[in-house]
Specification:
The protein is an all-alpha fold. It contains 11 helices and no strands.
Amino acid sequence: MAPHPVVQAIIDLSAGAVGGAACVFSGQPLDTAKVKMQTFPKLYRGFIHCVVSTYKQVGLRGLYQGTTPALMANIAENSVLFMSYGFCQQVIRFTAGLHSEAVLSDMQKACAGSVASIFSSLVLCPTELVKCRLQAMYEMEASGKIAKSQNTVWSVVKSIMRNEGPQGFFQGLTTTIAREVPGYFCFFGAYELCRTTFADYMKCDKDDIGVAPIMFSGGFGGACLWLVVYPMDCVKSRIQVMSMTGKQAGFFKTFMTIARAEGVRALYSGLTPTMVRTFPANGALFLGYEASRKLMMKQFDS
């Protein structure tokens, strides 16, 4: 018997939070390198140079700069994402005339994930804005674009409230949604397709394929997401960080400025650490989500 919709929503939300925390702890240093390379593509020769330079300049804590807002961002995003994912699956069942426990196709699940990402963008944007600004703070101060200040979560939040008001937390929201909708279609679609392939090969249920196949499926989904949406993510990071210096242009103007002034290659700056990070981080995300959800569903059934 399926749990009550409210109970199911709480289970999905909690499992998403567990997955989000696992994602951050397994991939934060590589995410920091990604944001630095996106914002200052000419400052670093490559991924290794960026990591080594950051370590020399600020120490190990420099690679974990922005971990607190990253945790807040990922826990908030994935809680809302997976709760909405469950809700959107029910909406698709209703519109397709299926019963409430019918198994959806991989394509239908991809559509549910795509729509769910709109809701998660609303909670992701403010926390990711703070994270990106903290991660690029050293370079912004060193280049003279902003004055030296305290590099803490609270100082960044106060600065945004004082200089930009509450709407300042939603700098880059349009770009975030433009990134998330196609990205999560690929993310959930590739994840479910990969799980189906493993289940067919192992001749078992998708929920019983084991740890390694789940982690690989999650990593594969993440790789598909980033390959599709990376230029949009680069524009989003640039808008969120450079808006510290004053009013920043919107998505299309920023995109064209980067392409004209720095070349198309600049839109893919930081892709290497992102692809290296995606397998452990997204593998941990889905492993945390699937394992904790299965455990909570088992507790409910018993």
